[in-house]
Amino acid sequence: MSDAAKPIERAATLDREGLWSPGRRALTLGLVLNVTIVASEALAVSTIMPIVARDLGGLDLYGWVFSGFFLGNLLGIVVAGILIDRGSLAGPFVLGIGLFSIGLLIGGLAPAMPVLVAARVIQGFGAGAIPAVAYVSIGRALPEALRPRMFATLSTAWVVPGVIGPSLAGIVAESLHWRLVFLGLLPLIAVAAALTYPAIRSVAPVPAAAEGEHRIAQDARRRLPLASVLVVGAAMVVAGLSNLGPVPVVLVALGLIVGTQAFARLTPPGTLAARPGLPSAVLLRGFLTFAFFCADAYVPLAIQEWRGYPAIVSGLVFTASTLTWTGGSWILAHRVERFGPRRFLATGFTVLLVGVIGFATILVPTVPIVVATVTWGIAGLGMGLSYSVLSLVVLRWAAPGEQGAATAGLQLSDVLGTSLGTGLGGALVAAGLRAGSPGWVGLAETFAVAAGVAVVGLVLTRRFLPRASAG
Questions:
Q1: Exposure string (b/e) for 68-107, b if CB count within 10 Å is 16 or more?
Q2: What 3-state class would DSSP assign to 79?
Q3: Closest of 60, 67, 59, 48 to residue 108, by C-alpha
Q4: Do 125 and 228 meet the contact criterion of CB atoms below 8 Å apart?
Q5: What does the pLDDT look like over 213-259, one tens digit per residue?
Q6: Domains and CATH numbers, the chain
Q7: Which of 387, 394, 417, 446 is nearest to 158 (CA)?
Q8: Residue pLDDT, tens place only, 350-367
Q9: Which residues have C-beta within 8 Å of that of residue 313, sequence separation ≥ 6?
Q10: How open is the CA angle 403-192-406, to the nearest 5 degrees?
């Protein structure tokens, strides 16, 4: 065999190999490790937040602990997308993991709720780079046939954190101190980063011609200011909803005007109109995450504060939803080509709707608490059946040199939906407390909003991809 033919033969061999073959093992393991760390942190913080709020005070800022994280995510995603499209994935990875660690350290030492919110913003900025790096590394290093399996494998990385993480976090927070939940993850992050960096650095950048590099530089100068405007607009909306400004209605209106224009310019043309194809995929990711996380952030509050159960019960509920999310992702990976992404997406929205409505019934004191575990497990199944569909479509439709921008648009919609959902839920809960209403009122309104957004998303799935492309 000639020397010129050897790279072609090697590429063909890799295409036939699986995710854990010698040529791909390091990348697969590295991505799994980092998703495991992020999953552990997310599930742990969600579980212990009622305890943190009691210790630091400032229940009005409960929603901001989540919204602040995702507002930082918005900016981090765009910065990572710009750096990725300029070449190597190593720089965005180091930046992301570093800021994520700094945010954890400040959060673990926070003396008051505002400091914790600021720490979560820093942490979110760093965390925004991690999924962007993971998605693009999958797009660059794996053939299309292996991508569904890789996304399912990444969802499996939530299993161990989902099984032991929430319950362990609850036990540590109640028997020792909630600060150890933040600080205890730092050594694990150092180990994961050291193991992952060589694999991320080995992913080859997409070759770019001189005119392509010029276009990327121009695009970077455009996207970063727009991302900053989007973050400011989203923050204004959340602040107005939380009644933190002098004229909340004006804040919300201005935030919507500013943020909508920036979002439209940062995502594929036609996204706000749900144009079939890539635009509808990007928009629907936002509706999906809004519907789920608007309720998910307040699951522990409903269980621990309203029903009076310990944090370990919240941990079991999150374990159920994590396992079913993973199960749904594997069903998707093995059946998506047979049934098509549109059917999976619509089914996912429907199952999520059933789960949210079912979980809301635990606000009735006579409903057994086991219903919370079952129904939130149903909601997790809905996310597993639908979430990765949108990632697969974006990677399929985006040109190789534009995968950073395309995945950044998808993640922007993802995080914006999560931030607005958790922010609106926090505003409703805080408004109920200020009005002196029973604790279940704000929670019921939050779950009702989540269900309503799921219904709208289900309707919009009719615009998801032309039927000829659905398979």
A1: bbbbbbbbbbbbbbbbbbbbebbbbbbbbbebbbbbbbbb
A2: helix
A3: 48
A4: no
A5: 445 555 556 677 888 898 889 888 888 887 755 667 888 899 999 99
A6: 22-469 (1.20.1250.20)
A7: 387
A8: 999 999 999 999 999 999
A9: 303, 304, 369, 372
A10: 10
